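Sample 3 of the quickstart, ligand glutamic acid:
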Amino acid sequence: MSYVDEVLAKVKEKNAGEPEFLQTVDEVLNSLRPVIEANEEKYKKQALLERLCEPERQIKFRVPWVDDNGQVQVNTGYRVQFNSAIGPYKGGLRFAPNVYIGIIKFLGFEQIFKNSLTGLPIGGGKGGSDFDPNGKSDAEIMRFCQSFMTELYRHIGPETDVPAGDMGVGAREIGYMFGQYKRITDRFDGGVLTGKGLTYGGALGRAEATGYGIVWYAEEMLKYNGDSLEGKRVAISGFGNVAWGTAKKLTDLGAKCVTISGPDGYIIDEDGVNTEEKWQCMLDLRNSGQNIVAPYAERFPNAKFIAGKKPWEYADADLYIPCATQNEIRIEDAKAIVASGTKYVCEGSNMPTTNEALEYLQSNGVIVGPAKAANAGGVATSCIEMGQNAGKTVFSAEQVLDQLHSIMVNIHKACADASMKYYGEYDLVKGANIAGFEKVADAMMAQGVV
Ligand code: GLU
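Result:
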């Protein structure tokens, strides 16, 4: 049995109840085969892959809080500190009712490679809670965030572990957590959290960064294939921070975003989600705490709401960009996307495509930009924010976004080069895994058995 197969079998046995984690490990390790085979003896002796798949530390804690009726509620908090070979653990916090250790581990594992791809010195981590922010009052959100940080603070720090936002955690939640951290520790450690407000250390451009980065990555994919974004019709899913930044940058670069979506269904807007008013509407929908997109069609009567469906059935797009959540593109969706005749899918959300759907898309000639490369602009800008905080300075929006743009161009090139080198073909999915892995593997080997 090859070393990769041996490790895959062990990981499956050990983490049987965590399908999302197994999904990403399976996808990543399989694509690393040629690299592992070239170094098999050395890596096996050092148990490199076993170490890579085992988080350095996992923290699980009780988060008690009092709701507006005076009732005590209890949630579970998590922080998985996955890999610190190339820098302090870095990755967001997700607050969503379906959060359990398998989700945090899949996100943390992906984060290792994503952060490595940025070329910046950040390791991989992720955290969150099964707390559902939808329908909660502002005071409840604050009390929850304070309770969450009352435990988390002892495990994080600007040189140790730097959380940020993810689904359910935006600038408001980061603000409440930062305030509580500062109160408990009596330190203004600006770089302990990223995604902060602009008045207390946040980076200009961080809010837009993930979406902008995705579109810049897509632009590189199209360019490489002799194409451009100009005039392209783009179907995206989601309506949160990632979808918002994506819709804005698509418009900037001359493409037209024609769909957005929520758990209730999707919106078709043939005029384009392309005005300040429409982007503001996305923010309003997010802030409503209802988690629905239907009201967009009431506000903009030319738009249509399709209840209970996903935008992958929309056949008239040149490019599809999932920006909602994991496994939102399943095999039936991949079939619809292939049937549309499109050439491109660029992943915005983390692991939006099941392995079966990914295989179907790629074997039918669709070029896929993988999330760990395409959405790395968010965490890259977080690292720029850490640098700004450490240097006691403030960067201009232009400084941040110019750096972000060149990071995205470099990531695309690293992915393309790595897949060419090991597979002799342009496969960004494999290339991203390989390019991300090589740097981490080298650092782990250099640092001995730790
Ligand atoms: N949650 C984002 C991600 O998936 C950003 C993480 C960060 O800025 O640390 O990469």
